Amino acid sequence: MLTNYLKIAWRTLWKNRTYAFINILGLAVAFGAGLLLFMTAAFELSFDRFHANADNLYRLYFLQSTRDGTSDKSAAMSYPLLPALRAEFPEIEGITRYQSGAAGVRYGDKTFSKDVRLADADLLT
């Protein structure tokens, strides 16, 4: 019985190849777009969930304009900005800087380098 249904479906699809191709292509694009949207939403909602006050965490972004007219968004915070933010906005309960980069050590003719992450002491408070 199932084989008859599959035969009829195959014959119908083969008979109307253009419409079948358009429909299957549209369904594949819709599934792909839905999957991409779901994965993007899950990725964006996964940040900072380790913290007890995750709903109260904020991140500062700086918009830097270059000489050629383009702009670059960055979350890098300069060192004197932290005390200035604490002085200007007393409602801030805690603030921390986070920086990543590479550090290298040279000993003789050998060079070692590692990725380094730096943060202030009140990162997890």
How does this structure look, described?
With 125 residues, the chain is of the alpha+beta class. Helix content is 40%, strand content 22%. A hairpin with a 5-residue loop joins strand 1 and strand 2.
**How are the strands of the biggest sheet laid out side by side?**
1-2
Mean pLDDT: 86
Low-confidence stretches: none
Q: What sequence of helices (H) and strands (E) makes up the elements?
A: HHEEHEE
Helix coverage percent of residues?
Answer: 40-55%
Gap from first CA to last CA: 65 Å
Task: Please identify the structural class as seen in this structure.
Answer: alpha+beta
Number of helices: 3
Quaternary class: single chain
Radius of gyration: 27 Å
Beta percentage is 15-25%
In short:
With 125 residues, the chain is of the alpha+beta class. It is built from 3 helices and 4 strands, in the order ααββαββ. The protein is 40% helix and 22% strand.
Secondary structure topology:
Elements: H1 2-15, H2 17-44, E1 62-65, E2 71-74, H3 81-88, E3 98-107, E4 110-119
Antiparallel strand pairs: 1-2, 3-4
Notable traits:
125 residues; alpha+beta; two-stranded antiparallel sheet; two-stranded antiparallel ribbon; 4 strands
